[in-house]
Amino acid sequence: MLNPIHLRTLVEVVQLGSFAGAANRLGYTASAVSQQMTALEQFVGVPLFERTARSAHPTEAARAMARAAAPVFADLDTILEAARTAHDDTSGEVSVVLYASLARATLARVYADPAFQQSGVRLRITVQDPSAAVRSLAAGDAPDIAFVYRYAGSGLAWPPAVHQVNLGPDPYRLIAPAAWQLDSALRERSPAEVLSELPWALHHPGTSDANVIEGVFRQAGVRARAMTHSDSFDVVLDLVAAGAASAFVPSVVARLAPPGVDTFDVPGLALSRDVHALVSPSAPGPSTRVVLAAVQRALEPDTNEPCEERAAD
């Protein structure tokens, strides 16, 4: 039987012109895409690619299959929509995937949300990086909702069958020990000069987040000196609260900072990631809407808490 996942991968390869481009969009490795295309060729029984040592070009047979795939996927979407409609009123459980910082910032608020409590909806939770969540979606092993983030211009993409709900931007903020009194230093000297003198808690080198932040620092003229490397924001917050380091973190993380930590917006040091909810076509409609609304409310600033944020002049 023809594997629809392999067929969708073929469509992306033909559209983007390379295994690497399709892998980037679908959340696979280039090797996984190559293996899928080999399996598809074996099933079809005709060559789909003209391979050389460094490239693979789609044959006319591959292009014909890609053109014919559009109505196939439309029919599959119709089938999935029918299943979702039938499932809407029969399920009170929603499976969700969240990345660690969003889970840390929102789950307690979601469970304390009166509307969520009254709904009776049950959550089945997995904490997973966005790239891994997208790979699960592409493989057809989809949760009802996958919460992901991506930076502007990044290559992270997801299957077109999922419904994308935009939850808004998550801008980065500078956090530092209050005892350092950075507000006065940032008013008197250039931000690049001040920030280059600080010890930093940074992501591990080579990770996607580290690469993005390194580019922002470079553009702002900041030479960040790493005191430690950690991908755990809980560890980073503890280090900043202890007076050991500064950090550049998303707003959902900065708002979890304990007493003794100042938060700044620094001119020239601008970065934001966009937060999305990717809803499976088979997700239970009413229960899914309850969860989405609760997460959106959890992301709103708490107006009952004193605001400790400061803007550097």
From TrEMBL:
Record has Transcription regulation as a keyword: yes
| Record's keyword annotation contains Transcription | yes
Sorted keywords for this record are: DNA-binding, Transcription, Transcription regulation
Q: Tell me the ranges covered by the HTH lysR-type domain, including all copies.
A: 2-59
Note the SUPFAM superfamilies from the entry: Periplasmic binding protein-like II (SSF53850), Winged helix' DNA-binding domain (SSF46785)
Question: To which protein family does this belong?
Answer: Belongs to the LysR transcriptional regulatory family.
Protein name as catalogued? LysR family transcriptional regulator
Q: Which lineage do the record's taxonomy fields give for this organism?
A: Bacteria, Bacillati, Actinomycetota, Actinomycetes, Micrococcales
